[in-house]
Structures are given as structure tokens and as C-alpha cells.
Design goal:
2 domains; Cytochrome Bc1 Complex, Chain A, domain 1; alpha+beta; 13 strands; about 400 residues
């Protein structure tokens, strides 16, 4: 069955995705992420995400956890550059509990003072954990290089300096200005009754409870500002970590389907070109991969690898040759078809999971303001031509549009 869109009386959009399953997932998506934060507030969206689990006027943190886990379910949340999402995955007769708990968190988070102090310490430890991970350091530094004058380039968790200065009052004020009906999408996927679920959502997100206001806007990426070429940092590690990045268009561009194929051709799986050339033929790295990370109006295509310092020049030469090849020669038809089957097959396998359906359809509505159609998505992938991939590669990899982030052994 196709996804169903319903606008609640409070103004919140809901996406319902019924399917055959023995479970149900419920998610709350909010347009609130690091990209919308001022420098002094860096990390505040992520901090709010943590604090929503810490209690409401009628529930302590342990009550929230026990209500979900007591039914055998699980729940979690994440914050990205543009979105915060809270979700629960439950047995199919427990949707009511999931909606009850997550609506209470969304509407009535109380930010208890003792929990705030404890959680601040947890987040500071999280920031230190990322600083100890060379892959995270390489990726965070790369994003700063690719987006040097936009909040996209700042870490989602913020810094020790900004997080240390945050107060419950500041978090409440920020949440009040961002957790709005116009900024929120609800999603339900799995086994549930459509009419009963709509009635449940209308009750738990009643107009009298939901905040309204003007939808905040992100600062647009200025493509005239060049990327920063390179950064090198050092850590107590045995291997060099490198992340190479190219600024791209975002989710608002129909070339995203060709971009997904380009990404898969170069760095997804052991049969990808970079894996074959760098690891299998030359033994320069244990692992090399690529990733396209799109935002609403821009994106970053990144190649990541670990290697010995002695192989740095050979690695870069090999990568450059592969990028030049894909930008100047059409992909052979057999390879293109294999890649399309890889992508469509992965998509289908992923969508057998209720939680994957939830995240896809909730995220799709957040990005495009309409329901997604998985059949259409698959057809758009199948329709990509070899020339579309070549011309896209030529545009992205041409003319100095590159940043390189190195993390070197001390």
C-alpha cells in the first residue's frame, strides 16, 4: 500500500505507511539541526535531543525507558545538520504506548536541573570520543573545508566550549522557537489501523497543545565561496586517515539519482572501482569507500580510506586516475546495469524492515513536502544513462573543487 498523507488539525503533517508486519514504528521528525544554529549555540539541537529523554512533568527518565522497553520495544533518536528525529519500534499492539510517550516528550519535556547537569557531562564525553576517533576527525574537518562559511561545516554535537555554556533556559527557548507544527512531520509504518491511528494522533497532538510559529530557514550555501584545499592534524594512531571531499548539489536536484549511481560505481562494496583499484590491485589500503551526503540545497561527495604514510602519493594518484576515467569515459553498459541492480536490490532489502520504511517516508516528506513512492524511486534509478553519470562526474571532479582532510600519526 502507498504512503498516506494526513494533516492533523494542529497543522502537523503525518505520513502513514501500512504494511504487513508484526510490529509498528512511530517517529517524530523536526526541522532542527546544527545548520540552523548560531556559533554560540553550536550543538544545542543535539543537546535538546538528549534532554527529551530525561523527563516530563508526569514521567521521569526511567519511566520513559521502561514504558517502551517493557513492551519489548526499543527507541532512539538522532540529530543531523538539518533534522532531529525520535522514533520507537514496537510490537504491533503497542502503537498507543509509542505515541503516548513520544508525544509527551515532544510536547512536555521538562529539562530537570539534575538531569541537565548529568547529560551535559555525557555530551562532553561524546565530543571527546569523536575527537579520539581518527575517522570522525577526518570527516568533521573535511566538512569544515567544503563548507567554510556555513554552519553545515560545524560538528553536530558542538564543541566543549559551546556545550559547557548551555543552560536549561536556553534549551527551552530554542525548543520553543523550533519545535513547531510547521517544522514537524509524524510518521507511522507497519501493522496498524489507519482510522484509529489518525484519531490517536489527533488526540495526542491536539491543537491546544502544539506550538505554532514561523518556520525557521537555513542560511543558503554560497557556491561562489571556494572550498579550502587541505588540512592536516595528528593523533596517536598507526595509520593515516584521509577524507577527500567535493561540494555538490543537494536533495532539491533531480540529478540525485545519477549521483547515487556514481557513488555506488566508485565506492560502494568490494566490486566498486576504488576498492578494486586501491585495495585489490595495488594493496594500498585495507578499506576505501565513498559516500554522498546530501542536504536540502547542497551536498558533499566524500572518499575515505586508511593507509600507510608511504602510500599517500600513490593513493592520491590512483584515486585521481579513477575520477578522471569516470568523468571522461561512459560507464560500460554491463557495469551500469550491475550497479543499478545493486542499488535497487539494496533498496528493496532495506525496505523489508519496518523501521527503514519509517525513516525513508518520514525523511522524504521532510525533504519534499509530499509522500514518497518507492516504485517511482526505483524507476528513476533504472532510468539513469551512462552519459548522465559521465557528465555529472565531469562537473563534480573538474577544476580544483576538492578538499582533503588528513589525520596523521604523531
Amino acid at each position: 500500500m502507498k504512503a498516506i498523507h494526513h494533516t492533523l488539525k494542529c497543522g502537523i503533517n503525518a505520513v502513514l505507511v501500512p504494511c504487513e508486519a508484526q510490529s509498528v514504528a512511530f517517529g517524530v521528525f523536526v526541522i532542527s539541526g546544527s545548520r540552523g544554529e548560531k556559533p554560540a549555540d553550536a550543538g544545542i539541537s543535539h543537546f535538546i535531543e538528549h534532554m527529551l529523554f530525561k523527563g516530563t512533568p508526569t514521567r521521569k527518565a526511567i519511566d520513559i525507558t521502561r514504558a517502551i522497553e517493557g513492551s519489548g520495544g526499543n527507541f532512539n533518536a538522532f540529530t543531523s545538520e538539518e533534522t532531529t528525529c525520535f522514533f520507537a519500534h514496537m510490537p504491533d499492539d503497542c502503537l498507543g504506548e509509542a505515541v503516548e510517550i513520544l508525544s509527551d516528550m515532544y510536547l512536555n519535556a521538562s529539562f530537570p536541573a539534575d538531569e541537565f547537569i548529568t547529560e551535559k557531562g555525557v555530551i562532553l564525553e561524546e565530543i571527546k570520543m569523536y575527537a579520539d576517533d581518527p575517522d570522525s576527525v577526518a570527516e568533521e574537518n573535511l566538512q569544515r573545508l567544503v563548507f567554510p562559511r556555513n554552519a553545515i561545516g560545524t560538528p553536530v554535537a558542538g564543541s566543549e566550549q559551546t556545550v559547557s555554556k548551555m543552560t536549561p533556559e536556553r534549551l527551552r527557548a530554542y525548543m520553543k522557537s523550533h519545535y513547531l507544527a510547521s517544522n514537524t512531520v509524524l510518521a507511522v509504518a507497519g501493522s496498524f489501523d489507519i482510522e484509529k491511528t489518525i484519531a490517536l494522533l489527533e488526540t495526542k497532538f491536539a491543537p491546544s497543545l502544539v506550538r505554532r510559529g514561523r518556520k525557521p530557514a537555513f542560511k543558503k550555501v554560497d557556491f561562489s565561496i571556494p572550498q579550502v584545499d587541505e588540512i592536516r592534524t595528528s593523533r596517536d594512531i598507526a595509520q593515516v586517515k584521509v577524507a577527500i571531499g567535493y561540494r555538490t548539489f543537494g536533495l532539491d536536484d533531480d540529478r540525485r539519482y545519477a549521483m547515487n549511481i556514481l557513488d555506488a560505481l566508485l565506492g560502494k562494496g568490494m566490486s566498486s572501482r576504488l576498492f578494486q583499484e586501491v585495495r585489490e590491485k595495488r594493496g594500498l589500503s585495507y578499506n576505501i569507500s565513498s559516500m554522498w551526503h546530501p542536504f536540502s540545497d547542497s551536498g558533499i561527495f566524500a572518499i575515505s580510506a586508511g593507509l600507510s604514510a608511504a602510500n599517500m602519493a600513490k593513493m592520491m594518484d590512483t584515486i585521481d586516475r579513477e575520477l578522471e576515467k569516470i568523468a571522461t569515459r561512459k560507464v560500460p553498459s554491463a557495469e551500469l546495469e550491475r550497479t543499478k541492480r545493486f542499488l535497487t536490490g539494496n533498496f528493496k532489502l532495506g525496505h523489508e524492515k519496518v523501521l527503514s520504511k519509517l525513516l525513508f517516508h518520514g525523511g522524504y516528506f521532510m525533504a519534499y513536502g509530499k509522500t514518497g513512492d518507492t516504485d517511482v524511486e526505483l524507476e528513476r534509478i533504472r532510468a539513469v544513462t551512462a552519459e548522465a553519470v559521465r557528465s555529472l562526474a565531469a562537473e563534480i571532479f573538474a577544476g580544483g573543487n576538492r578538499s582533503v582532510s588528513w589525520v596523521m600519526p604523531r
